[in-house]
Amino acid sequence: MDKISIGADLPKEICAKYQNNPYALIEILHDVQEELGFVPEKLVPEIADLLNVTRAHINGVISFYEDFKTAPIANTHLKICRGEACQSMGAEDLIKQANQLA
C-alpha cells in the first residue's frame, strides 16, 4: 500500500484485528501509523465510532504520545539533544540554524 493512500476499510480492518476493543487504542493507532506513516485526522471519527469512544479521547491519546504524527513527515529527521550538557555545548544555536534551513 502506498504510504499516503488511505483505503476505505483500513480503520475497520485494523480495529477488527483487536476486536474493536477500546483498550487496544494505542496498538490500533500504531498500526494505522505503521500503514500510512501518520494518523490522519479524518480517520479519528471512524475509529471513535468503531471503538465506541469519543474523538476527544483519541485526540488526547494522539497528542499525549509524541511518537504519533498527524501529518506526513519528511524522509529526513533531525533530533537535537536539549539536555543541560547539550545546551552548554551550543544545542540552542544548532536548533536555530536547523530551523533557518528547514
UniProtKB/TrEMBL annotation:
InterPro entries attached to this UniProt entry: NADP_DH_HndA-like (IPR028431), NuoE_N (IPR041921), Thioredoxin-like_sf (IPR036249)
Record's keyword annotation contains Flavoprotein: no
GO molecular function, one term: metal ion binding
Matching Pfam families: 2Fe-2S_thioredx
Keywords noted in UniProt: Iron, Iron-sulfur, Metal-binding
Keyword Iron among UniProt keywords: yes
Record protein name field: NAD-dependent formate dehydrogenase gamma subunit
